[in-house]
Amino acid sequence: MFKRSISRLIAIMFISLSCLLCRAQTSTSANAINKPYRILTSGKQVTVKSTKTIKNVMVWTATGHRIVEQKNVNAQSFSFNVNNISEKVFFVMIEYEGGKPFTEKIGVQ
User: Fold this and answer.
1) C-alpha angle 32/33/38, rounded to 5°?
2) How far apart are CA 41 and CA 107, in angstroms?
C-alpha cells in the first residue's frame, strides 16, 4: 500500500514537472515580424510602400505563373495592376539591398 502511494506521488510529480518544463514553440505570425513595408490593394491595383529602398519585386499567382518581375526598382513605393488575371490570390516577394527577401500572400478582388 505504501509503495503504491509513493509510486503515484512520483508519477504525479513527474507529470507536473514535465508540464512545467515543456514549452510550446513560439508563434511567428506575420504580425510578430517587423516588416519594413505595407501592401495596399484597391481593386486590381496593388501598391507596396516601404520605409527602405526596394531593390526587386516579384509577383506570381497561386498556380505559379510569374506576372511581375521588376529589378532595380530603387524606390520606396512600387505599384502594379493585375487587370488581365482572373486569379485572386498572389504571392509578392520584396527584396532589399543586402537584406533578406520578404514574401507575403495577398488577395485582390
Assistant:
1) 110
2) 8
d(CA 44, CA 109): 7
| Amino acid letter for position 54 | I
Is the CB of residue 39 less than 8 Å from the CB of residue 48? yes
Hey, CA dihedral for 45, 51, 55, 59, is it positive or negative?
A: negative
Q: What is the DSSP letter of 66?
A: E
Give this prediction's pTM.
Answer: 0.67
Domain count for the chain:
1
Positive or negative: CA dihedral 77, 70, 67, 100: negative
To the nearest whole percent, how much of the chain has pLDDT over 70? 82
Query: Average per-residue pLDDT in the chain?
Result: 84
Residue span of the structural domain in which 75 resides: 3-107
Beta bridge partners of 92: 59, 104
- Check which CATH number belongs to the domain holding 44 and give it: 2.60.40.3080
Whether the per-residue pLDDT at 12 is higher than 90: the answer is: no
